[in-house]
Design a protein that fits this description.
22% of the residues lie in helices and 36% in strands. The protein is an alpha+beta fold and 233 residues long. The protein folds into two domains: 1-19 and 206-233; 22-202, no CATH class. The strands form two sheets. The chain has a seven-stranded antiparallel β-sheet with strand order 5-2-10-4-6-9-8.
């Protein structure tokens, strides 16, 4: 009887594990890692192939995983003076050239990538000061935001993120290849840029019992097994 109880418990655990969504984190860095210090005379596109294991040492499989959110990290970033400045970051479609490419922009205040690709503004960051800061800008909500960065640096800089930023990221990345466009309208020194994407496993196609149902089933099996064991004794 003990053998049957163990087999029953094993089956329950397998069912329960299939109902859990496991998270995975993926990191991507451009080359050069600081995007040329985001020179104000240029705009930069960074094309990313989510499945390119040779470059990123891992493979994100959109057939089995769903993107749950992302963060764009800037290490030790600051503006070179206190004049008005703006950094605009856009999503680019799968026609983008893979890797990093730069374009002459000559500080034109409009977003360089608007109209040049199938693009959507991901966020803009205005009036960055000369204070060096480490920043992670989260792309994990569809709610529009305008306000200060929540990193403890009170320098008057304003972050603007339009509505549907997460949905837009998921839509652009759905082909497995997408890009980020950086248009710096001033000079932003930094020590590196990194994109983090986190995922959950896609749920199985066949319905899986909810955890509460599985717990009740397990308790019932235990009760039945205990009673059968007592009868045998």
């Amino acid at each position: 009887m003990r053998k049957y109880c163990i087999l029953a418990l094993t089956g329950i655990l397998l069912l329960f594990s299939n109902g859990i969504l496991f998270a995975a984190d993926y990191y991507y860095t451009p080359s050069p890692g600081d995007l040329g210090d985001l020179d104000h005379t240029l705009a930069y596109s960074w094309g990313i192939n989510l499945a390119n294991k040779d470059i990123y040492n891992h493979t994100l499989n959109l057939n089995t995983e769903s993107i749950a959110g992302a963060s764009l990290f800037f290490s030790s970033i600051y503006n070179w003076d206190n004049n008005y400045n703006i950094l605009q970051v856009s999503l680019l479609d799968d026609s983008v050239t893979l890797g990093v490419k730069s374009f002459p922009d000559n500080q034109n205040p409009t977003n360089y990538f608007a109209g040049k690709y199938d693009s959507k503004l991901l966020f803009s960051w205005e009036n960055m000061s000369t204070k060096s800061r480490n920043v992670a800008i989260g792309i994990n909500t569809n709610t529009a935001y305008t306000g200060q960065l929540k990193d403890g640096v009170a320098d008057g800089a304003t972050l603007y993120m339009p509505a549907n930023s997460l949905n837009n990221l998921i839509a652009y990345a759905s082909a497995g290849i997408f890009g980020l466009g950086f248009d710096p309208d001033c000079h932003y020194y930094n020590c590196g840029i990194k994109l983090k994407i986190w995922t959950t496993d896609k749920p199985p196609s066949t319905p899986v019992p909810e955890p509460g149902t599985l717990m009740l089933l397990g308790m019932g099996l235990f009760a039945v097994a205990s009673r059968m064991r007592k009868k045998l004794i």
